[in-house]
Amino acid sequence: MSKMIELQHVTKKFNDKKALSDISFSVSEGEIFGFLGPSGAGKTTTINILTGQLVQDNGQAFILGKNAKDISANDLLNIGFMSDTVGFYEKMSLYKNLEFFARFHHVSTEVLDDLLKALDLYQDKDKKAENLSTGMKQRLFLIRAILHTPKILFLDEPTSGLDPTLSQKVHDILFDLKEKGVTIFLTTHDMNEATKICDNIALLYQGNIIEYGAPQAIIDKYSDENKVVIRFQNGKEITVPKEEVANYLGQYVVSIHTMESSLESIFIQLTGKAFTNE
Q: Ranges for the ABC transporter domain (predicted)?
């Protein structure tokens, strides 16, 4: 598969503060890539470089097979960007907000209606945008970004504030776009979500990529295969070496499972900091 996004040894400073420090990664066509890091880690700077809004100090950035510095207005039509800062008309209805973009991209109203129904918004389509809940706005912004089935899709916290049922519906739509060859670059603070839907991830901290690869491969790398967690009927849990498991059998054991790390615990292990959006 061709590389749709690639950074090679990119560095970016703002005054004397280094926002990105020699970062490199690539994202292939049809891949769901998770770019994970707390606020201030460098995620927005990276996206702005890839979309031609910023120029890096060192290194090279490529998108859609060309240098990010050289992307044109026509190239931007092949990119979907989930944003709440532009093109949101509070006095217009939810439907009119999206119909404007559908017409701009020559997308049929049938496609728009299908997306509204898939994300449980169709019944609220006549509500004024200013009266929408945070979750409704989130889904509106997502639909706007994916209406034209772009080649590359940038999503910032696509399921933030959504309940598990709606989050799953968003995931189903992303998997469908992936099947169509859309490359999805997403940021999320939900490590479980990243583990579930991403083909590859990069853990970003203070402008550095501290881990990169398939989520399960990273988890396996840091998991201790020689220890297991034993849970008892009274709710107590203990961690013991595998060879000691036999000593606890028959003692009201409810479950025994291997000790597997999570992306969040790995992040804490590598940085000494909790993974938060603070």
A: 5-231
CB 8 within 8 A of CB 37: no
Nearest to 98 by CA among 140, 45, 67: 140
In 3D, which of 222, 151, 161, 149 has the Cα closest to residue 193?
161
Q: How far is CA 30 from CA 2, 66, 69, 149, 182, in A?
A: 9, 18, 23, 12, 5
**What would you measure as the largest C-alpha separation in the chain, in angstroms?**
69
Helix (H) or strand (E) holding 168, with range, is helix 164-179
Residues 82-129 pLDDT 10s: 876 667 888 999 999 999 999 999 999 999 999 999 999 999 999 999
The domain limits of the chain are 1-78+150-165+176-220+263-278, 79-149, 224-259
